Amino acid sequence: MPWWQEMPLLLIIAFCMAVLLRTFLVQAFYIPSGSMEPTLMIGDRVLVNKVVYDLWQPERGEVVVFQGTDKWAPEVVAAPSSGLFGRIGRGFGDLVGFSEPSEKDFIKRIIGVPGDVVACCDAEGRVTVNGKGLDEPYVADNSLLQESIPGQECRSRKFPKVTVTPGHVFVMGDHRAVSQDSRCNGQVPIDKIIGRAFVIAWPAGRWGSLSVPETFSGVPKLNALRLEPRHVAMAPLGMGLLIPGMAVSVHTARRRGRRLPW
Hints:
By secondary structure, the protein is an alpha+beta fold. The chain has 2 domains: 3-218, Umud Fragment, subunit A (Ribbon), CATH 2.10.109.10; 226-262. The protein has 5 helices and 12 strands. It has helices at 3-25, 52-55, 83-96, 182-185, 229-255, and strands spanning 26-30, 45-49, 63-67, 105-112, 117-120, 127-129, 132-133, 159-163, 168-172, 188-189, 193-202, 208-209. The strands form 2 sheets. Strands 1, 2, 3, 4, 9, 10, 11 and 12 form an 8-stranded antiparallel sheet that branches. A hairpin with a 5-residue loop joins strand 11 and strand 12. The longest helix has 27 residues, at 229-255. It is elongated, with a radius of gyration of 26 Å.
């Protein structure tokens, strides 16, 4: 094909691929506030895996993008697009995933998963999960170590003990002194999570992965079963094989005219 025909075709294909990737697999998100500093700075762009939680449940320490419930007030109010070209540009950016996020999109770190007991603080002033204090190297500017005040829970490091309810997660920002998170806005429904942020894609000088810190590896599980999985599975499986086997044996013996021993 001549270049003047091939080039528009390639652009259309690239645009369609970008829309498909953004819709189903990976989306880029712009960081508009400092609630996750120093992990994420204002102006960073992160790539978010949108299918990961269709395969397994969220884990502690993961950085996630989610849609806030009615309790979550916008951290940054986006300026309305002015003019026709401004609205078209924002719509195009939304399609390919490079526009600024909506006012109800938030990015935080998961601290507690369903069943966890999250509280603050222990004797060293740390957040605890299931009784274990978290050493959080990603927190550079913590909240003041004072009792929480009704209506200002997010300004204090201390907060009442919270048991994470089924189908929810407890999230906090890394910049605790300014972050508006689950301390004051409540837990986040898992079905509101858009995906997991796994890499800083832009600017180039800040490229890096968003891995789970080691501090979460030692958090104990509450009410964990003491039995090995094979002990739980073998009893039903054995009975399931034994009963049909006995039925086949009885049927065969009767057909052959044998006397059963019972």
